[in-house]
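hey can u check if this looks right to u? its 277 residues, i copy pasted from the old doc so theres a chance i mangled smth
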Amino acid sequence: MKLLSSEELREVEKTLRGYLPKSQQVYGFVFLINRVEADRIDVFVDRWPEFRVLLVRPVKQEENDFYKGISIFTTDEASLKNELLQTDILDWTQYNCLSFDIGHAETVKAVAAQKGVPETQLSMCHMMILHNPSKLQTNRLSVQLSSLQEAHVDLVNRTWKFNSGKYSERLIRNMVRSYPSCCVLGSDGQPVAWILTYSYCAMGMLYTLPEHRGRGYARALISAMAQKLLSEGYPVYCYIEEENTLSYRLFQSLGFSEDPSYRVTWYSFNEALLSLR
């Protein structure tokens, strides 16, 4: 596959807009790569300029950077299967985490089976996109909003449901350093609720400390973050796990909606290798 240059990445950003919403995640990656200096992320296509398969692969700084997952977009199932089978774009002997439209699951799973690689579905999510900004809440709460700082990384990591110590801490530190975030500060100046931006531009990690819940902080944070992203020209969207109906209703009430024909899923491959590290 061809590794895209900086100039080609600017061009592919325009092309991916034409495939929204199904290209949303890879578009978010490319959007941020073109604007923010952060950990290196490589983007590959099967051919140029009229590609059929696009793959985003963050560069692992260390062997155990297993949170640096790979995102796949394709307009042609046969081409996707060929690239995964016939090229070395993925090392199937190592742990990999892939995200893609659920419509491609059978193709990816068939390739993994042919390679003799065990797979596990990690999650299935709705993709919620802000279509009606007029529903966003103005800051009627008398709270102090700020951006997260590096000193807050440990707190965010400890409370994240996917916390895995130093490995997830690296992910969160890069997010705090590189991408927009928003938090509510308590009376002691420490965050009591927060929301971050992933490297693919989605809002996420929304969390309120248990003793501060029920005060409208989540609604205020979503609104403030969405308004900030809008003002800077960012795509405004998030992923919500299918079973999380509470969050779905919250985002929906703030003007977010989804294309019901699209679901994003995350699969891990060779997950057993993680226990050996």
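Residues 182 and 225 are 6 Å apart (CA to CA).
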